[in-house]
């Protein structure tokens, strides 16, 4: 065993003496034992190249190219997902203040979509009524799930709800990867409908529906 350690130390010293540490500078080209992916046949951006007629590696998109990203139709026109716009961030442009109102036009189709997405993505924890009594509470998987009828949450700007869905908050994980931008705003709209259903007054209903109230 003693010889093994001695031999090991000597061979480590020999390897370092011959090859040096990774990243150290040499006058001669270094010996590559593990080249990993350091040498690749590739074109670097903004470099000369004989391959294209204009002699450059970076090329402009072909005329007539259509962006693959699908724009979201907001109340003020289409917005692409890479734009710095409230519909993508939940923020007023150039600030970190949340936008007060949902940038999508509120239609019954949007609310239906929101209801469906809410039931899939949020109801397991927050419950169908948004009171925090989802299945995860019942089976004891989550001790504290926010009641979305809390005054603080009812008073949140729409942009903040969007932000919480996108990035999560405290114990709640982010849902931005699972729920598309449009669907997140649809969920926000539906959540507002759930809150209103609890806070509304009979006077909020159109007169012909008021008689149906028990
Ligand atoms: C896995 C369970 C789970 C799911 C799914 C879930 N939430 Fe939550 N949510 C929580 C928990 C737990 C909290 C309390 C977080 C805390 O304060 O620690 C919370 C808090 C919140 C809050 C309040 C944030 C605050 O500022 O206190 C909002 C709003 C919210 N959730 C909305 C949603 C919406 C909308 C969805 C569906 C897209 C959703 N949640 C899906 C568990 C979940």
**Fraction of residues in helix:** 25-40%
CATH first level of the domain at 80-202: which class? Mainly Alpha
Query: Looking at the structure, what is the overall shape?
Result: elongated
Question: Low-confidence parts, pLDDT < 50 over ≥5 residues?
Answer: none
CATH fold-level assignment of the domain at 80-202: Cytochrome Bc1 Complex, Chain D, domain 2
Radius of gyration: 29 Å
The beta-strand count equals 2
How far is the N terminus from the C terminus?
A: 89 Å
Main beta sheet: 2 strands, antiparallel
Describe this structure in words.
With 214 residues, this protein is an all-alpha fold. It has a domain of 123 residues: Cytochrome c-like domain (Cytochrome Bc1 Complex, Chain D, domain 2), CATH 1.10.760.10. The chain has 9 helices and 2 strands; from the N terminus they run H-E-E-H-H-H-H-H-H-H-H. Strand 1 and strand 2 form a beta hairpin. Helix 7 packs across helix 8. The longest helix has 19 residues. The model has no long low-confidence stretch (mean pLDDT 90). The site of heme C (HEC) has 23 residues, from helix 4, helix 7 and helix 8.
């Amino acid at each position: 065993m003693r010889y093994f350690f001695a031999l090991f130390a000597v061979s480590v010293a020999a390897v370092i003496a011959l090859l040096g540490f990774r990243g150290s500078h040499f006058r001669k080209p270094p010996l590559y034992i593990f080249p990993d992916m350091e040498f690749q046949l590739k074109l670097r951006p903004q470099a000369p190249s004989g391959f294209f007629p204009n002699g450059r590696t970076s090329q402009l998109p072909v005329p007539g190219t259509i962006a693959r990203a699908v724009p979201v139709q907001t109340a003020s026109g289409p917005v692409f997902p890479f734009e710095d716009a409230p519909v993508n961030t939940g923020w007023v442009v150039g600030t970190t203040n949340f936008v007060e109102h949902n940038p999508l036009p509120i239609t019954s189709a949007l609310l239906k979509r929101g209801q469906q997405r809410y039931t899939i993505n949020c109801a397991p924890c927050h419950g169908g009524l948004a009171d925090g009594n989802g299945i995860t509470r019942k089976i004891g998987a989550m001790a504290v799930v926010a009641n979305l009828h809390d005054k603080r949450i009812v008073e949140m700007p729409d942009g903040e709800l969007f932000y919480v869905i996108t990035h999560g908050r405290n114990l709640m994980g982010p849902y931005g990867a699972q729920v598309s931008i449009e669907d997140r705003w649809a969920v926000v709209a539906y959540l507002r409908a759930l809150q209103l259903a609890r806070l509304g007054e009979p006077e909020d209903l159109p007169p012909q529906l008021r008689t149906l109230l028990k």
